[in-house]
Amino acid sequence: MATDWREPFLRLRARWLPVLLILAILAAISVALFLPAPSRDDPALGVLLVLLRGQVPLAIWIAGAVLLAGVSLRFLFGGLPVRFNWWAILVVVPALIVYSVAATWILLYPIARFVLEKFPAFPGALSIRVDTPEATRLTFIALVFIAPLMEEIAFRGLLFSRWSVKWGKTRAMLASSAAFGALHLPLNPIGAFVFGLMACALYMRTRTLLVPITLHALNNLVVFLLVLLTGSPGEVSTMKVGDLADGVYVALVAMLLASPFVFGFLGRWWSEPQDSIPYQANRETATAMEKDV
């Protein structure tokens, strides 16, 4: 075990994460281009390509952090949370979803109005595929299990801890949440940024990744069920500028109604300046327990 808990994060290179993501996107595009035309329309294959460009590079970077930088997943994850009110997550999840959808709607309108006004419709692609039973099963596994696990380890665990060592906790929370928002471009950067702040605050408060992973999984599960129940095919759809304009005021009201819940809980869970980051606290707790044995 390293004498200083910071050593693994000083060795960890955050710059490799965007490099891996770009390479994965290029690989996914290359695979799609070389596939026969009928295969490109396979919904299940579409889900696998989404995993290739999003979750595979995260898994590679996480493996590098553990094997090369020496980060301990045990200290990164932590144990079961102590005295945490799990019911609060059931209130936060719907508020976060309403806030995210409203923020996305408000963001898309000016883009469609001023940037793409020469085009008849605003294009948007959903990665939630429920076209076939196989695609539905793959989407469920990817959204509810793989994405929450990989993204919380990468962004809340590794990236937040790395930048906390470099810049301090508050700047690390903002920067890692901004990076998480960038991962969800172009449709949901604002909602993902706020979600990232919430997940970081929960990670700091509970000292375990189990809570933000649960929050992430429940959030994605609700979104998946909404798509499944409404029968949305998840295909590339078009939305006219007029349709976006009609819903802007509703989105503003929804965003205002959800904000007290979202930011109220965020303020409630925000860490104190003297709090140690979870990796440090978990390592010190484990070391103290070993000395007592």
Structural topology:
Blueprint: H1 7-11, H2 16-34, H3 37-40, H4 43-67, H5 73-77, H6 87-115, E1 122-124, H7 133-167, H8 169-183, H9 189-206, H10 210-230, E2 237-239, H11 241-269, H12 278-292
Antiparallel strand pairs: 1-2
Helix pairs in contact: 2-4, 4-7, 6-9, 6-10, 6-11, 7-8, 7-9, 7-10, 8-9, 9-10, 9-11
Which percent band covers the strand fraction? under 5%
DSSP summary, beta strand count: 2
Helix content: over 70%
Major β-sheet profile: 2 strands, antiparallel
Number of domains: 1
Strand order across the largest sheet? 1-2
Mean pLDDT level: 86
What is the alpha-carbon Rg in Å? Answer: 20 Å
User: What's the shape?
Assistant: globular
Span from first to last CA?
Answer: 17 Å
Can you write the helix and strand succession as a string? Answer: HHHHHHEHHHHEHH
| SSE-based structural type | mainly alpha
What are the segments in which pLDDT stays under 50 over at least 5 consecutive residues?
A: 118-126, 233-238
* Total helical elements: 12
